[in-house]
Amino acid sequence: MYSVRGEIGILFFYFLSIINLDIFLRRGWLVCYNESKELKGWTGMKVVFVCLGNICRSPMAEAVFRKMVHEEGLEDKITIDSAATSTWEHGNPVHHGTRKKLEEHDISAKGLVSRTLDETDLDADYILGMDASNVRNIHSFVDGKSDATVARLLEVAGVQRDIADPWYTGDFDATYRDVTLGCNALLEQLKKEL
Ligand code: 4NP
Fold first, then answer.
1. What are phi and psi for residue 82, nearest 5 degrees?
2. pLDDT (tens digit, 9 = 90+) per residue, 83-116?
3. 74 alpha-carbon distance from chain centroid
4. Catalytic hit among 56, 57, 121, 152
5. Which one of 50, 54, 56, 101 would you pick to mutate in the ligand 1 pocket, going by the greatest count of ligand atoms within 8 A of its CB?
6. Is 136 among the residues known to form the active site?
7. 94 CB less than 6 Å from ligand 1?
């Protein structure tokens, strides 16, 4: 039998279920949103050292900086990587000159393999080139897609020049001195920002 009251009742429950569904969906969305905010809320820093081949200078910087960060107990706060602006040495291990210099200073280059700068580097806080040409190439790669500070490593130490390039000179001592100078300054800078 037709009943207006009955129809109103059905409509009432219909709207109630829609409102409930809406609340349920919004709460679910909020949970997901807050979880992703928590993930994004990581307050650490990420640094990527960059050179032409990623076998001499930038892996030296990565290994030296890893040791410094480890000695400060900041491994959980600072992510460190290195990369090449070219694909020339892709997949190759660290140059024996860099490896030898690092070993002399009791620094491990274990597991370091050349790779090219890619999209995964865009979330870095610092992308640091070893020379001016690296920095130009980093800027063209980044092309506004990253908030990272892009600079030459030695500029962090207030020194306006390139890291000594051992590729033609074979002088890995000079490279080590420059890298250490830059990395020390970088560590002090990051400690202020963390
Ligand atoms: P890196 O050194 O950029 O410091 O790794 C070089 C590595 C390879 C070449 C030049 C520099 N190359 O001409 O293949």
1. -145, 160
2. 999 999 999 999 999 999 999 999 999 999 999 9
3. 15
4. 57
5. 56
6. no
7. no
Is 165 catalytic? The answer is yes
For residue 15, the model assigns a pLDDT of: 53
| Given 22, 26, 99, 165, the catalytic residue | 165
The per-residue pLDDT for range 156-182, each reduced to its tens digit, is 999 999 999 999 999 999 999 999 999
**Whole-model pTM?**
0.81
Angle, vertex CA 171, rays to CA 168 and CA 172, nearest 5: 115
Atom of ligand 1 at shortest distance to CA of 59? 5
Q: Does ligand 1 have an atom closer than 6 angstroms to the CB of 56?
A: yes
CA distances from 92 to 53, 54, 84 (A): 9, 9, 11
* Atom 12 in ligand 1: residue holding the nearest Cα: 53
Task: Give the residue among 178, 146, 154 at the shortest CA–CA distance from 46.
Answer: 146
Look up residue 173 and give its two tokens. Answer: 């001592």
